[in-house]
Amino acid sequence: MDIQTIVKQVLEELEKAEQKKTPSQASVDKQVGKDYMYEKQKLVRVDNPSDHEVVEKARAITPARIGIGRTGTRMKTKEYLDFRIDHAAAQDAVFKGVKEEFLKEMKLPVLQSKSESMDEYLMNLDSGRQLDESSRKWAEENLSKNKQVQIIVSDGLSSSGIEENIPDLLPALVQGLKGKNITLGETVFIKMSRVWIQDEIASVTNCDVVISLIGERPGLATSKSISAYLIYRPGEDTVEADRTVISNIHEGGIPPVEAGAYLADLLEDVLQNEASGVKYAKLK
Fold first, then answer.
1. Residue 200: CB partners within 8 Å, gap ≥ 6?
2. What residues does adenosylcob(III)alamin bind to (predicted)?
3. What pLDDT, in 10s, does the model give residues 24-75?
């Protein structure tokens, strides 16, 4: 169920409650094709708070649902609508997938994991950690070998995060690496892939470092966040602690352009130290 439908349903419920009667067929007909505009505002909704200014300041600095007030034991209508919208956005981020138009605009080669559906991707973690046969063959035949850095973009658990952040992050990252004379393989997009698929890509390309830009699990605070996972020379004995991760890349966290520049510096440091994850942290 998309956000437009959620907004329409809740506003219609509110209208019915205010009328306190069953709407006529003419009233229902007026709703068909009607566009609803809704703007989220962080207002103090507590009735007669003891310190309105304190609650207002708290609301301004956190996405948490505080100071929203209540009607009896329930949320007020506006907060209920906000909740439904945020929940719908989180679901859309997971299930809708990155738009084909976006992939064409970014001009990225598109590969596929062994996950054949979103249900399989969510329930069988291993299916997202390997390329399917045709993608593996394409990667072996077309991706550059022996480069210092290989970049992977993946929808992961937030297609919205990828569409929102990659157009700004990726150019900043690539420009930063080229400015440092670091050699790059061709950036690829891998549908329904998980972080560990970078190990297979690293083995195919024989790169020094592989970095995955992947959609984060969405929440009610934001559905548009991504993370960057990078690892130096992964192998059969690689464990999760060998990976370095930078998370919360989005407008309300680490801005994508800033993240791209920072990741370029981080990758340069990882290459110089020939280590990532906990091993890298110990060197610092």
1. 129, 130, 131, 136
2. 195, 216
3. 444 444 445 555 565 667 777 788 888 888 888 888 877 777 888 888 888 8
- pTM, 2 dp: 0.74
pLDDT score for 158: 84
Would you say how long the chain is, in residues?
A: 284
Q: What is the pLDDT of residue 26?
A: 46
Four-point Cα dihedral 121, 122, 125, 131, nearest 10: 10
Pairing outcome for strands 226-232 and 244-249? antiparallel
Annotated binding site: 195, 216
Measured CA to CA, the distance from residue 177 to residue 270 in angstroms comes to 12
Between 14 and 268, residue with greater pLDDT: 268
| 199 vs 61, residue with greater confidence | 199
Fold topology of 3-95: DNA Binding (I), subunit A (1.10.30)
List, as own/partner pairs, every contact residues 199-203 make where C-beta atoms lie below 8 angstroms and the sequence separation is at least 24, other chains included: 199/129, 199/231, 199/234, 199/235, 199/238, 200/129, 200/130, 200/131, 200/136, 201/131, 201/139, 201/143, 201/150, 201/152, 202/150, 202/231, 202/233, 202/234, 203/234
Domain boundaries, the chain: 3-95, 100-283
* Fold assignment, 100-283: Rossmann fold (3.40.50)
- Annotation: binding site for adenosylcob(III)alamin: 195, 216
